[in-house]
Specification:
Radius of gyration: 18 Å
CATH class of the largest domain: Alpha Beta
Strand content: 15-25%
Distance between the termini: 24 Å
Number of domains: 2
Structural class: alpha+beta
Largest sheet: 5 strands, antiparallel
Shape: globular
Order of helices and strands: EEHEHHEHHHHEEEEE
Number of strands: 9
CATH topology of the largest domain: TIM Barrel
CATH architecture of the largest domain: Alpha-Beta Barrel
Length: 201
Amino acid sequence: MRQITTLDTHDGIGVTDVDGLMPESEIQNTLATIQANGGNKLYRASGTNANNLDIYQINTTYYSALGEDDESYITARAVQFMLPGIPQVYYVGLLAGRNDYERFERTNHGRDINRHGYTLGEIQEEMKRPVVQRLLNLMRLRNTHPAFNGEFKVLPSEVEFLHVRWDIDDLYVDANIDLKNHIVNIEYVNPENGRVELKRF
């Protein structure tokens, strides 16, 4: 319950984190998909290329790794936020940031692709994007609802769905996440008025 859960860091996406959890074939398929979403520039920014210190991460933003698709991104974050642990969100991930190929071309440091230096004006504009607002709503629910201090359960569901629930006293958060079609529905008891609310994030 005290573990830190991460999808992205300043180095990109960790590869060794899933060693032993995913079959090697699935890891390679995932890497190939991420590579395809980033193209040749992403290939040059990762692994032993581009003055990298190691080969244990894919140098990319999480948003770009998912093809810059809002629904895929919110689905991934919903899984992170609904599972036990303390979610960590990298600042570029908070803004659903895209790969900074221009910075990478200037420095030839692969990690810089995931380290965009936002101006205040850029931050203000990025905060208006619907995907960022949806992410913030998910974060508010995760950070404020009392049920996340209660009991966690994984409920029976089809293979392409994740159904989880948090309960404390008369309050609950019940999340149905469609992993194939990237749909996130969360039902919860509003702790302020006791009403049951259902939202699609």
